[in-house]
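ENCODED BACKBONE
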Amino acid sequence: MHLKVLKAKLHGLVVTDTNLNYEGSITIPEHILNEAGINEYEFVYVVNLSNGNRFETYVLKGKGNDVILNGGTARLGVKGDKILVFSYIYLEPKNIKTFRPKILFFDEKNRIIKRK
């Protein structure tokens, strides 16, 4: 048996753009993904703190500090919205006590301000 647990949380990212004419996903800067241990094309759960929308999608690597909602997800937020991004992993129960998720907090320019 495996249990689904939090692998990484990106807290307070700010949407910098939307692109409706794309196949769909969320673009997150590569350096953020690397630090959080999130892979390109990995499935994530997103909560929009600005409007309450929640959705699942996959991640694309981006550049700079841009966070972009693409395709259908572009309808779920606008530039300036604050979001949370969650990544999960399945672990055997015996490994849960020693596992610690990566939690990153961001300022309004998507710079990491705290690591937990």
Q: What stands out?
A: The chain has a mean pLDDT of 97. Strands lie at 3-14, 17-19, 25-29, 43-48, 54-62, 68-70, 82-91, 102-106, 112-115.
